[in-house]
Amino acid sequence: MVAAIPAALSALGVSATAATTASAVVGGIAAISAASYKAKVAQNNATIATQNAERTRFETQVANQEQDQAAKADIGQLLASGGASGLALGVGSMGLRRKSAEELSARDRAYTTYAGETRAAGFQQQANDFTSSASAARSEGVFGALGAGLDIGGSLVSGASKVSPATASRITGSTRPRARPY
Question: Are 8 and 146 in contact (CB under 8 A)?
Fold first, then answer.
């Protein structure tokens, strides 16, 4: 009965090594899978942010066109009412009113463009940040796999030191005696 205890402990050592190795493999697969998922989510978010930037630029162009049309309509109305009143359209107060309306229209266009480009730049920065996050997640997956590989190697080396020379020779089929350290 007492002679069976070392053999049982030796067998438990090998089983613990197998369990630790399997755990490292599963952990490595989980780390790679999680990192891949995070990278895909970040890349999708980068795509969405880029699309938002493009959409914002387009909306800014449309808003500018609408402002230009409204300004032209206002200037046309100004000219029509001045002409109907018999005023000279290009000189005096009528000319100044027209020039002022054109300058205000140009300023509104500049403000709208600035606001739209600022908003688009924010979306583009988000896209860049998400792209960086995707890259970092992919690196995380690589390092997770590397760490799992090191864990597996460590488990196997640790487990090998727990096996007695007699058990090792049975497992490997080797009959060569093990050298004794001095």
Answer: no
